[in-house]
Amino acid sequence: MKNFKRIAAIAGVIILLLIFCLPMVFAWGSSENSQALFRGAFAAAVLVPIVAYVFWMAYRIWGNKKPEENPNRMIENIIFDVGNVLVDYGWENYLRGYGFPEEKFQKIADATFRNPVWEEQDRAMHDESWYVDRFVESAPEYEKEIREVIRRDSECIHLKDYAETWVKYLKNQGYHLYVLSNYGSYMLDRTKQDMTFLKYMDGVIFSCDVHEIKPEADIYKTLLKRFNLKPEKSVFLDDREVNCEGARKAGIRAIQFKDLKQTAGELEKLGVK
Predict the structure, then answer these.
(1) How far does CA 146 lie from the centroid of its chain?
(2) Where would one find the signal peptide in this protein (predicted)?
(3) Scanning 28, 37, 186, 216, which has the fewest C-beta atoms within 10 Å of its C-beta?
(4) Which are the contacts of 263, defined by CB distance < 8 A and separation ≥ 6?
């Protein structure tokens, strides 16, 4: 965006210089139309800067304005988890959609979404096939089903209907917004394009990019250091209390997200409106 603005500014200067030079070019001409062309070029040299100035002033008055920041705010930074806060992570409904008998459903759930390897997958220390093999090892009799479930697992992620509106509102109120989320690299590759709220974020950390996961202390330290955040001026929203506790240990205020109304109410107690 900065490069675009720089190029546009240079192009504008060049165009204005050309417009100012045109009257001189026509003034020295010898054709019968030189005088008319001179007058037209002179008028353009006068009028174009005036019109450009009018448009610029109109933009200054009515254009998009950067939200004002209040230095007296208790909270300056709002940090979001993604799963079950800004997107639905509905793995149970997704897995139920296969119509497996109950015993089979439970075994596949234990082998995949409830498997400790699933959370370790968010650290992204191995390629996807390595993790899939570990899932299969937990229930080899259902290898075919497990591989199909993992192949389509991005179907359990859906953007919450309020996500972009909420994030945009907070951004317009002048808050700095960040993401701190446990997220596997392959799941991220398949779902990131649907996270329309990311364009409003001032910084984003997915666990797979830093090879650290919540609630370990290192990932909170990475967030604070990378974006130079004051922990006492920050609040973290996560649906899991253990992750909220990890943030509190790092000096960050935290709210366990249960639903939008509850979280908005607790944010309001911190002065976030």
Answers:
(1) 31
(2) none
(3) 28
(4) 237, 255, 257
